[in-house]
Amino acid sequence: MGYIPRHAKWYLADLVVEFRIEGEPDNLVHYNLTLVRADSPEEAYSKAFVFGSHHQSSYKNPEGKQVQAVFRGLRDLLVVYDELEDGAEILYEERRGLSDEQVASAVVEKDALQVFQPWTPPE
Question: Whole-prediction pTM value?
Answer without folding.
Answer: 0.80
